[in-house]
Write a structure and sequence with these properties.
The chain is of the alpha/beta class. The chain has 18 helices and 25 strands. Bound molecules: 5-amino-5-deoxy-1-O-phosphono-D-mannitol.
Length: 600
């Protein structure tokens, strides 16, 4: 969701800014722009639409060794050139890009900016106009920038140019991600290290409510009160090749195919030389101490949480509640005496989850984050972190992060059970190795699944995914995958629940995808399939070796019953992929969606 890149150095900044913005495209956006500062002043280029269009718009004859760029995911005001960033103050002196939402922008406008004519509908323009307003009194850019940051409420990552000062980028953040990258004779600013990995792997974290003065040869971090802070850089642990598609047509397909590799990586990372589970002792202690676990997540990560609940309850015998992050803060359940919160988030930046983390930390409760990005906000602000080791996930539709989350939750549940002295007949590493082999088989069956996508989903307006027990959790994820990238209206239902209302929607040809991987509900889910077929549905069954019947459309290799979601989700991911592809959808960057959802 929105992306920022900034450059200050000796070279022409266009290349770094435009390449950086391309790397941030995966976050989701609907307009883009760059501002380049040179001897002629600020040169502004903005478009509604993709970076490809921005590249056409940018005047290649403009050279500037300093600039800022932005991809905007509309919140205040429609996607348009006027609302696209960068935004400028009335005189044109200050130019700024912003991610996040300024919650008090109307109040600030009323209190300080009654006489200003605004050019956009954004909350962002208020920030740049305020800086100019304060400058008129104090004639000091840094002081005006600081005064403005002190007044902002909400989330922001900001980079600003003063066109009278070609040696400084002014930067600040609160709740939204932003990093400074360090180079020789240049420095960069980015929402995400992926944007600027091509030029540096050395980064400085910026903490909330800090101000950073970025010059060509130096970076100064200050608290809001002006106190200077020392901070060491870290090396970004991302391989530049991980963020390239290589020979794949889409990141989503690449990431689906990477799932067996990720399973093996998780096995390696969570096991010591004696084949014992390797987890932070503090996490073990926190899990053992908890009388109830609250899993907080959104979207696909929420669906992984539903699977994790089953692991923790069945194996470690601790009650678990799974909550949608955006609801939890406003409708907090009665908490147990010794709760442990687990935040599941691929990006580690989801604002809805972070809001819960902030409130439960204020209440003094412990928190564990399970994330693919260890340096992310949710990771830094929780007490403990478990890493997914999935490598960067670029496609908006989450695939390998979902299966990695489930694998890590299985390991966590077993580790807790063992720490509690519970007897288990389940070796997670052995079973995950079997899953990895099954995933190899499944990802090699693309042609078969593509055919199923054609047979069942080519022309449909809607589709239903049904399952019982563990399969119901995967039905929810399968339907989310299909709807978000193919725009087919899809819903996941518990097989037994259909007859209580939803079956009214079944008509001739309605696709129903049923999962049958659980022995105890194999006959009942097949009964539900008969019910919809009797009403005209075009039903296909995805079953598992040992439970299959002659007419099943697809049979999964056998994996341990607890881990079936790791196998059954793969054909559903591929079904969604091919359905979207055949409909001509933008698979990796579906409309209206952002990869990292940094607004509440
Ligand atoms: O980064 P997170 O795991 O916290 O993101 C949560 C959701 O926004 C995310 O899973 C979303 O639902 C995916 N696009 C689904 O594929």
């Amino acid at each position: 969701m929105c992306g920022i890149v900034g450059y200050i150095g000796q070279q022409d900044s266009k290349e770094v800014l435009l390449t950086g913005l391309e790397k941030l495209e995966y976050r989701g956006y609907d307009s883009a722009g760059i501002a380049l500062l040179n001897q002629d002043g600020v040169n502004l280029f903005k478009v509604k639409g993709r970076i490809a269009a921005l590249k056409e718009e940018v005047d290649q004859d403009v050279h500037a060794t300093m600039g800022i760029g932005h991809t905007r995911w509309a919140t205040h005001g429609e996607p348009s050139v006027d609302n696209a960033h960068p935004h400028q103050s009335t005189s044109g002196r200050f130019t700024l890009v912003h991610n996040g939402v300024i919650e008090n922008y109307q109040d600030l406008k009323r209190e300080y900016l009654q006489d200003v004519t605004f050019k956009s509908e954004t909350d962002t323009e208020v920030v740049v106009q305020l800086i100019e307003k304060f400058y008129q009194t104090n004639q000091d850019t840094l002081a005006s920038f600081r005064q403005t940051m002190e007044l902002l409420k909400g989330s922001y990552a900001i980079a600003m140019i003063d066109n009278e000062d070609s040696d400084t980028l002014y930067v600040s953040k609160n709740k939204s991600p932003l990093l400074v990258g360090l180079g020789n004779d240049f420095n960069v600013v980015a929402s995400d290290a992926m944007a600027t990995l091509k030029v540096t792997d050395q980064y400085l974290e910026i903490h909330d409510k800090e101000i950073v003065i970025v010059n060509r040869e130096s970076v100064t971090i200050q608290k809001l009160d002006g106190t200077v802070l020392e901070r060491s850089p870290y090396t970004a642990q991302i391989d530049a090749s991980d963020i390239e598609k290589g020979t794949y047509p889409h990141f989503m397909l690449k990431e689906i195919d990477e799932q067996p590799i990720v399973m093996r990586k998780i096995i390696k990372e969570y096991q010591n030389d004696n084949n014992e589970l390797k987890l932070d002792e503090n996490i073990r202690t926190a899990m053992k101490a908890a009388d109830r676990i609250y899993i907080i997540a959104a979207g696909t990560s929420y669906h992984a949480g539903l699977v994790g609940k089953e692991f923790i309850e069945k194996l470690a015998k601790i009650p678990v509640e799974v909550h949608v992050a955006s609801e939890f803060s406003y409708n907090m359940p009665l908490l147990s005496e010794k709760p442990l919160f687990i935040f599941i988030s691929q990006s580690g930046e989801t604002a809805d989850s972070r809001a819960v983390l902030v409130s439960i930390k204020e209440m003094g409760h412990p928190a564990l984050t399970i994330t693919n990005v260890p340096g992310s906000t949710l990771s830094r602000e929780a007490d403990y972190t478990l890493h997914l080791y999935a490598g960067p996930e670029i496609a908006v539709a989450s695939t390998k992060a979902y299966t990695a989350q489930i694998a890590v939750l299985a390991i966590l549940a077993v580790d807790t059970a063992r720490a509690k002295g519970l007897e288990l007949d389940f070796d997670p590493m052995q079973e995950l190795a079997i899953v990895a082999n099954a995933m190899d088989v499944l990802t090699a069956q693309k042609e078969e699944i593509e055919q199923l996508a054609t047979d069942y989903l080519a022309t449909s307006r809607n589709a239903f995914f049904i399952g019982r027990s563990a399969d119901y959790n995967v039905a929810l994820e399968g339907s989310l995958k299909l709807k978000e990238i193919s725009y087919i209206q899809a819903e996941g239902f518990a097989g037994g629940e259909l007859k209580h209302g939803t079956i009214a929607l079944i008509e001739k040809g309605t696709p129903v995808i049923a999962l049958a991987t659980q022995e105890n509900v194999n006959y009942s889910i097949r009964g539900n399939v008969q019910e919809v077929v009797a009403r005209g549905a075009n039903a296909m069954i995805v079953s598992m070796k040992g439970l299959e019947q002659d007419d099943d459309a697809f049979v999964l290799p056998k994996v341990h019953e607890l881990l079936t979601p790791l196998a059954s989700v793969v054909p559903l991911q591929l079904l969604a992929y091919y359905a979207a592809l055949h409909r001509g959808c933008d698979v990796d960057k579906p409309r209206n969606l952002a990869k990292s959802v940094t607004v509440e």
